[in-house]
């Protein structure tokens, strides 16, 4: 696993650093320790820095954004209180992925009707959206401008101009505050120099800020196909950005 650019103050978040109820729920889900991806992604998002994670299927990407966002909501409630609208916005391009994500979030947060699982009371702070419409939370549509965290699952597909999803995604993101922490999760890919880079739409997505990039190498035999833009490497940032010229 690699982290780019290197962040000196970035320390992994261990299980015992999480809220006691959340940690208890995770242990009941058979978590012993967090994976390195989850530890560092949690640290990045809780420090309110934007993030791009490139990792293969089955590497724990979903938990890597659910754990820190649930922890964020818990800390927000303890320090500030109830928010008027959702604090977390989760976007995906398929309904099946959203349902799986929502079910997992409920389990982690203790929102299922299970007396053995502690309640973290975060359900009302989550809003899940499918492309450009709100799925199951129509009453929160006008309140997405209060979101403090926006997670885009399969961000590489969501910004693929050939799939026609970028317009809808952009309309949603226009409503969120300018200081919202944005996190994108995608399958791994890199150029011939084995360096990951941001596409032009990703640069726009992250509002020209420099997100932290966590890259988990795909196992041997993992096959992905991508159309890669010709890019240029910025001397001050060791990752690739598209050439606008």
Automatic annotation (TrEMBL):
The keyword Hydrolase applies. GO terms for molecular function: ATP binding; hydrolase activity; nucleic acid binding; RNA helicase activity. Coiled coil: none annotated. Residues 30-226 form the Helicase ATP-binding domain. It comes from the Eukaryota. SMART domains: DEXDc (SM00487). The keyword Electron transport does not apply. GO terms for cellular component: cytosol. Keywords: ATP-binding, Helicase, Hydrolase, Nucleotide-binding. Signal peptide: none annotated. It holds the Pfam family DEAD. This is DEAD (Asp-Glu-Ala-Asp) box polypeptide 59. The gene is DDX59.
């Amino acid at each position: 696993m690699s982290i780019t650019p290197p962040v000196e103050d970035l320390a992994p978040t261990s299980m015992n650093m999480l809220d006691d109820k959340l940690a208890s729920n995770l242990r009941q889900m058979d978590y012993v320790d967090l994976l390195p991806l989850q530890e560092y992604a949690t640290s990045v998002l809780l420090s309110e820095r934007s993030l791009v994670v490139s990792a293969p299927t089955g590497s724990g990407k979903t938990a890597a954004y659910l754990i820190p966002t649930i922890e964020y909501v818990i800390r927000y409630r303890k320090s500030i209180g109830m928010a008027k609208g959702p604090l977390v916005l989760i976007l995906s391009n398929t309904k099946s992925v959203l349902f799986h994500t929502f079910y997992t979030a409920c389990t982690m947060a203790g929102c299922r009707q299970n007396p053995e699982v502690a309640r973290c009371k975060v359900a009302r702070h989550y809003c899940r959206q499918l492309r450009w419409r709100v799925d199951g939370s129509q009453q929160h549509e006008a309140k997405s401008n209060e979101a403090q965290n926006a997670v885009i699952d399969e961000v590489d597909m969501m910004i693929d101009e050939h799939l026609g999803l970028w317009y809808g995604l952009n309309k949603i993101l226009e409503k969120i505050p300018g200081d919202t922490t944005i996190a994108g999760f995608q399958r791994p890919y890199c150029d011939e120099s084995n360096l990951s880079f941001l596409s032009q739409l990703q640069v726009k997505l992250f509002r020209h800020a420099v997100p932290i990039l966590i890259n988990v190498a795909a196992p041997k035999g993992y096959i992905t196909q991508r159309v890669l833009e010709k890019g240029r490497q910025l001397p001050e940032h060791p990752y690739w950005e598209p050439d606008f010229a």
